[in-house]
Amino acid sequence: MSTAGPSEPAEVLARFVRAPSELEALLADLPAGQLQTEAHPGGWTLAQVIHHIADGDDLWKACILAGLGEASPVYSLEWYWSLPQDQWSQSWRYASRPIADSLALFRANRSITATILAGTARWWERQVSIRSNSGALETTTLLEVVGDQADHALQHVEEIRLALAPPPGDRAHILPVVR
User: Fold this and answer.
1) Which residues lie below 8 Å from residue 139, measured CB to CB, with a gap of 6+?
2) Is 169 within 8 Å of 151 (Cβ atoms)?
3) Which residue among 30, 152, 171, 179 is least crowded, i.e. fewest CB within 10 A of its CB?
4) Distance CA 143, CA 15 (A)
5) Which residues of the chain form beta strands (DSSP E)?
6) pTM to 2 decimal places
7) pLDDT tens digits, residue range 42-56?
8) In which band, very low, low, confident or very high, does the pLDDT at 72 lie, cut at 50, 70 and 90?
9) Domain of 99?
10) Structural domain includes residue 43
11) In this structure, what CATH number is given to the domain that contains residue 125?
């Protein structure tokens, strides 16, 4: 279950919708070359994290839509969990894909999904069974799935924010005191 924020449906949906704007705001004035900065030492670049956010969101959108359309849906990402995420990153060309396309996909998916959810009575109570990477079925609510996806994206947005922040003690970014 999502633990990073409120669990009321309207608040979860607000967090879900907020992530594309926060990500776009972080990237608004960023020089293209800075997208190759590592999000954390030895990790993916900012560009790769952005593609991961968009692609992951696209995958989980199918789970959310299945939960709205089927009485007892079973959602499985066994095929995805069969390989390490680094291999998917390579197969899906995270290092060379245009960022603008992933940002547009992320914004569109969130907008479409939120519009559908907002127009569906008691969407948050609907249940979906998710097949874990071990093959076990776990039943959860759409509120938990949407909350987890909201939190996942916002955690990566924070990761990017921290990667772009000046290092502690970097005096070049400190404005002089005007008296």
Assistant:
1) 127, 128, 129, 130
2) no
3) 179
4) 12
5) 74-76, 127-131, 137-141
6) 0.86
7) 889 999 999 999 999
8) confident
9) 9-28+37-166
10) yes
11) 1.20.120.450
